[in-house]
Amino acid sequence: TGQLSGAQLTSKAGLDGLLIGAYAQLNARGFSQSASSFNWVRGSVSGGDANKGSNSGDFNALTPFQTFGIQPTSGEVNAKWNAMYEGISRCNSTLRSLASAGSDVTAADKARISGEARFLRAHYYFELKRAFNMVPYVDETKDYGTGIEAVPNSADIWSNIEADLTYAQTNLPVSQGAVGRANKWAATAYMAKVLLYQKKYAAAKALFDQVIASGVTSDGKKYALVANFQDNFNAAKDNSSESVFAIQAAANTGNSDNANPDLVLNFPYNTGSNGPAGCCGFFAPSFELANSFRVDANGLPLLDGSYNSAANQLKTDQGIASSAPFTPDAGPVDPRLDWSLGRRGIPYLDWQAHPGLDWIRDQTFAGPYSPIKFVFYKSQDKSLTDGSSWTDGYSAINYNIIRYADVLLMAAECEVEVGSLTTALSYVNQIRTRAKTGAYVKTAAGAPAANYQIGTYTSFASKEAARTAVQFERKLELSGEGHRFYDLVRWGTAATVLNNFIAYESKLLPVGYTGAKFTTGKDEYLPIPQTQIDSQGKSVLTQNPGY
Amino acid sequence: AQDRRLTGKITGADGPVPGANVVLKGTQTGTATDAEGNYTLNIRGANPVLVISAIGFKTQEITVGNRTTANVTLEDDATALSEVVVTGYSTENRRDVTGAVSTVKPAQLKVVPSANVEQQLQGRVAGVTVITNGQPGTSSQVRVRGFGSFNGNQPLYVVDGVPTQNIAFLSPDDIESTTVLKDAASASIYGARAASGVIVLTTKKGQRRAQKLSVSYDGLFGATDPGKSLPILNPQEQADWSWQARKNDLFQAGKTPDASSFAGIAGGQYGSGLTPVLPDYLLVGSRSGLAASAVDLTAEAAKYNINSANGAIYNVIPSNKAGTDWYGAITRVAPMMRHSIGFSGGTESSRFYVSLAMQKQAGIITNNDFSRYTLRTNTEFDITKKLRFGENFQLAYISNKGVLGGVGNQLGNSTNNNSSSSSDENEVLSAFRMPPIIPIYNSFGGYAGTAAPGFNNPRNPVADRQANANNGNFNIFGFGNAYLEYDVIPSLTLRSSIGGTYFSNYFNSYGRVQYENSENNTTYTYSEGSGYGLAWTFTNTAAFKQKFGRHDVFALGGIEALNTGAGRNINGSGQNPFSTDPNYVTIGTTTPGATRQVNSGYGLGNKFYSLFAQARYTYNDKYILTGVIRRDGSSQFAAANRYGVFPAVSAAWRLSSEEFMKNLPWVSDLKVRGGYGIMGNSNGLSATNQYNLYGGGAGQGYDIAGTNGSINSGFNRSQIGNPAAKWESSITSNIGIDGAFFNNKLEVVLDFWQKDTKDLLYQLSLPGVVGVRSAAPFKNVASMSNKGIDLLITNRGTLSGDLTYEVTGIASFLNNKITAIDPSVPYFTGGGTRLSTAAVRNQPGYSMSSFYGYNVIGLFNSKEEVAAAPTQDGAGPGRFRYQDLNGDGKIDADDRTFLGNPIPKFTGSITLTLKYKGFDLNTNLYASLGNKIFNNQRWFTDFYPSFTGAAMGGRVKDSWLPTHTNTTVPIFESASNFSTNTQANSYYVENGSYGRMQYLNLGYTFPAAMLSKVNLSRLRISASATNLFTITKYSGLDPGVGGSADTNFGIDVGNYPVQRGYNVGLSFGF
Questions:
Q1: ipTM for the complex?
Q2: In this structure, is residue B640 part of a structural domain?
Q3: Distance from CA of A528 to the nearest CA of B (A)
Q4: Residue A81 resides in a domain
């Protein structure tokens, strides 16, 4: 009947199969787009990088993520919960089976397999921690029928996450046979990130210092920024020196769930054969994000927030038909702008110049921009995308859960708080230098497609100025990669930043942002899913404040 | 005159008739015959006349004259209370039945020209609910006495003694009898698979006597009319309402429209002025919203390209200002025909029946066709005087093309064959979502569609249906059994039967490359696959039947082994062959490499081993006692819980045979029945429930090596086992009356029943922390109660002269309630599409599949009203106002409530037959009352943001405006939130009650005298209309809405409607 008993999976190959199953859940296949470790919905849409996109009614269960109207009964909230615990159950399943491992499993195998399983478990719990805050912690000693349902969400789980990552750091090899496996350095970087989230800056800095000094990828490449920013979003350039830990995507494997099923909606709409996938117009970058790429005469961002002013905001084709003439903004912008979002008149990868309205499903709801970071190239259509399903949007582009640019910026945060502003400056400038020296978007004639300007910081005037610059650099460098909302919450700036964002964006997209408001003390975390509370009981699961 | 004594014996064709009423005409004097048919009566008067009546016989009057002995032979009279009914492993006389049993005359069923016999049972049997749809060859939701379980509620079919779950292969003309066993007392002899009722069918046999061959032909020709589309906005209205939506948006924002307000609506198709203008062209290359003057068709013809292999698509789509009738475009007047020829005959020692039949039926949806060819041979031979050999065998070939929705597993071991088409987003729905301004075809003969911007994502349903033209599904069924019977002594018969179903299936499908839609499938995919299965049953029984004076004894014992169906299947697919000519395409001609996929499956079936016994004792035809016991073992359970023992007892008392009833000659027969029993059930349980299993493969794989194009297989726990699962059991009790009055002119069968199921097996959803990708174990966690009343009343008689009538009323009252679910999971949900919450909740205290959501108490009429109302997310004028059920001043999840359920509280019908000489007129009125429908289609057709730009329904014209507040239809605007279209609420719930004239049939049978001259024994012609009219408040196409599972049905997304048909029939015999 195509199924196995547990005893058939205690060989080395069997245990590895269970472990592969635990990796497979990183993209939350079969749950919901919003449940994935990518976090484009919670991290980027709730964070203001992008709005939900498409039109008002389509998949409108996601709209509350931009308006902060999320209900405990939301199926999306439940999907995130279920997907992450599914990952955890697979890690636990691997660890349980390891106890009865067959004779072909060496001690080194056991250390590696348990290290990877605990690394992944830490990842899934980290996802739950920052999404829900208080969640029940279940490990391999608890299973169905042995009290798993009775574990309450009353204890903080940071220490459990740290314990797993410490174990992984100790037991994982530096070099792994397969590049997709977590190695010692991935665990170290992750540990540092977890410490940073707890504001344990000194401890985090120590680890970041090691990662920056000595970290290598699973296949032995020294961690480094790649030459071109955009190569981080190109399937042909996966697993570069910048990839600390990634979700490995693969196309044409017999199942499109291996090819970014969480991202299939995030392509321009109705492109016909002139554009990628043609569906479905979700994840439209926000006006506010686009404006953020405006730079001053020195090629530096407008850290005072004036990028949204009438004078500085980007000129857009909102409300202008594709057949009507339009000239793109001529002012100075960061070159990462056009590798971070698609806009009218600028070449859209190797497809064609973005035609504006014709590729937008409902401009009055989604705005004028299209996502671009995780869009495949025309030259890769059907080779690095999966043609077996209803859309070509299933691609082989890896998503880096941690990439080295992220490491540098997190390290910079630590330096600002407990280290040296100079080191922080150098980290930020490494990022900016790469953006400056990498290839720009070019017109067919070979000229830069817009007025690209970027410079490095010469110094940080103060700790506060440094903090602002580092945080803004994170916004620019990592936009649309699922980080922003969580960053704002841990910085404690979510209410201010997001309510300002809403005030600006809602003027341009009134339908999508009607009633939107971030409420401090409530909206930092998702509600515990009502379904789970009903299932396990109110005495076991306590609802988060405000819901 | 002096009284004198008269004696005599009443006999019928099969011997003495006990219990016959013998009454002196014009007096209250009467008696009844004893067990040997003898009677004694004191008579008086000058010219005494006896009236003799008995169930199953025509009433006779005889003049006594001077006789002291009067022996009378009665003629058979087939009435409802007199037939032989096929129950259990035996047949019995209706007189002796103590359980709840209904029969249906095949002639009544055949009038309905549907392809599947189960569909014809709708409204025919008290206690049987049939929810069906209009797709030929579809499966129906047939439920006997409610819903005993959360799944696996399909009745067990027993065809000529062989159990099966699927009777799609039967030809209606082959059926001789249909019996429905409804309670434990009658059904439990079939044991564990009978808990949902048993429908026993027998097919025609020959007669065991020397005779010449008799040949019969039955033919039916007809057509079904698809009816009309639901109202949708025409092109101008759609444009106007798009403008109105923008005005409404501005109204909500407290603004007023100005010249710049209308930019960007519908992709600019209607311009951006203060009033919309319909364009002449919707798409020309990449231009849209064009006037005819802007398009030079000759020049465009040169650029036109719809084949992406030749470069970028360049479509040229004009507008259809008159409006395209999309429903009309995907439907047709659908012809059907049915022919069957039967040959029957026999000798003193043998009999046979052979038939050939075919039915071809087109669906009202284009490229949806059903055809079935069957061969049946039923024979029986005496090998010796005591030993008989017989077989019933049927071969059926069924081809189903262009099927909408799933129709369940056809192997025969599936216990959920519900059709899913009603809850699918299929082409029926597309027809109401596709904007009528889009023509079917573009300017150059290719398809038009939503590639023209501004109309969102409906796909051209005509193109989708056309793509189905070559998609086929071909099934071959071999079904039947062979048996030996040996009469050890005349009263003891041993029988051994082996039977089963062999099934094979083949399908292929072509997935075309689309270019006309906004969301296109850009890869050509060809797939095909095949499967086979074998289900078998081996039964050995011994039956004893003997009369000892006034004591009548019947006993049956048996042993049975079966497998519900083991089989394998394989399917593969490939992409982008060199040519898409269907004659060229095979998997072998598709592009080689990783995109060629193959999969296969293997199912073991469930194995049962059972022992059973039944005994019936009848005293003097007055008191009847029946006991049944069956012990079932199923491989679905772990060893410790494998066997279940299920007993049932029932008794009947024939009041009319009692002396004190003899004085009531208007009572022809009166019997009170009572039964009680327990039935086991494991239908819903998976074969492997006891095991913890792991699975996975490609679906749970991961590209651990970072190759971009390959994966390692991954495994996960696919199932958590529960070795502690045990049998579900349902306790049924039944009290009934069988009565015949006024010389059998009035017959009444009335049953009060209750069925309580406990230890219900259900896969309660796992708490998330366990990991929900493991299938939850089935556990015995719930209980359910069904109660009801079944009533059948027949009245027959003569209106005047040769004009006779028979009217039968059938009524079933049903009350289904979930009584308990494991407290750890207090309810479970399901159903509904495109809403943020589930439409259905199953919870103790409520019926299965109850709709659940917010109760809309009106629309907000002003901002002031919103401000004064309880806090409600997204509230605004013209939007839904929900009821604050708990009165806490805010609307949240706690304010949701139960909004009705799809289970009809009453189903019934009235069948009327009028006969005048050779003419007969039949009609049937069916009613289903008290059921609700969740009209999920409203999400698509009533709300502007539900895929903005797609077609909208006619209700929009009645939507809320500041100037039009007396309405239930919410404001037409862009907002999509909690107070508009995201929540399941009572706006979607409609009254699903309906009454329908199922058929009106007029026939003429030629007189035998005339026919004998042309050597015909029978000739009948008929004409009928089916589904002549439907009375309902339901706003969708058809109030008969099923669903893919009993735990969430009655949700209408794309229901395939039952529509009006006409047919003519011819049958003759010689």
A1: 0.95
A2: no
A3: 11
A4: yes
